[in-house]
Amino acid sequence: MITYQQIDGTSAGTKGYQEADTNKRGKRWHSPTAVKNFKPSDKATGEKHSDGQGLYLHVKPAGKYWRMSYRFAGKQKLLSLGVYPAVSLAKLASGG
């Protein structure tokens, strides 16, 4: 379930509001500490922790991978942004 919030910070469940910075479980993950503490699950395919706007951290037993999911010309695409910790959350936010 995606939650939305108005610009003034009050919550709303309707379309047209800015998406809140929580994942599907309602927990914030946009901190370096949270990213560092994600552990791989028992699934061989790993687990995806999304920001709700295409960016996600794919946590697998082999490592943590930054990915960006998007659409181009009506087709789903996937962009690999790097491996954590070589590419940190701060580096992604700064664009470089």
What does this structure look like?
This protein has 96 residues and is mostly beta strands. The protein has a single domain, classed as Integrase, DNA-binding domain (Double Stranded RNA Binding Domain), CATH 3.30.160.390. Helix content is 12%, strand content 38%. It is built from two helices and seven strands; from the N terminus they run βββαββββα. β4 and β5 form a beta hairpin.
Strand order of the largest sheet: 4-5-6-7
Give the CATH H-level superfamily: Integrase, DNA-binding domain
The proportion of residues forming helix, as a percent range, comes to: 10-25%
**Strand and helix order:** EEEHEEEEH
How many E-type strands? 7
Taken together, the total number of domains comes to 1
- For this structure, the CATH topology is Double Stranded RNA Binding Domain
The CATH architecture category equals 2-Layer Sandwich
Biggest sheet architecture = 4 strands, antiparallel
Low-confidence stretches: 1-23
| Global shape | globular
| Backbone CA Rg | 14 Å
The CATH class is Alpha Beta
Task: Give the overall pLDDT as a whole number.
Answer: 75
Calculate the terminal CA-CA distance, rounded to whole Å.
31 Å
